[in-house]
Design goal:
136 residues, alpha+beta, STM4215-like, nine-stranded mixed beta sheet, 2 helices
Length: 136
């Protein structure tokens, strides 16, 4: 259940950002509005790492992978401004919780190079995190 709790914590944190941005998550219905910015989000988990020999505790790590999608040919400024807001919201050391699991941002989010894809300009942002999980 740790993967579910981690995703819930990240979804809630992303939804709480202001101004709000329409968000598409995997396997959820989502239709972007043409000409309106939106973001695509996913939680990517790495292999869990045991923290002690009994296996009672492990560390889940991964990334909140965002794709900030903005109208094409309108410049990069608005997308980069949003990327900086993500960095501020998910700054190193910030914690978010859901269902008894605390997710900690492990480093400054990475803002990747933007590029045109189909009819939008996309700036990827990767937010690294970890959670310490106790086996039930």
């Amino acid at each position: 259940m740790s993967a579910v709790a981690i995703q819930a914590a990240m979804q809630a944190a992303l939804a709480a950002m202001s101004p709000a941005l329409s968000t598409g998550w995997p396997n959820h219905p989502f239709t972007p509005v043409e000409g309106t910015p939106y973001q695509l989000a996913d939680v990517l988990l790495a292999d869990p790492m045991p923290l002690e020999m009994s296996g009672a505790w492990h560390r889940e790590a991964g990334y909140l992978a965002l794709r900030l999608c903005y109208p094409l040919h309108a410049g990069a400024g608005a997308a980069l401004t949003r990327a900086e807001l993500v960095r501020t919201t998910f700054k190193h050391g910030t914690e978010f919780s859901a269902s008894g699991v605390t997710v900690t941002i492990s480093n400054t989010p990475q803002i990747k190079n933007g590029e045109a894809e189909d009819l939008v300009f996309v700036v990827p942002v990767w937010v690294p995190f970890y959670a310490i999980i106790r086996r039930s």
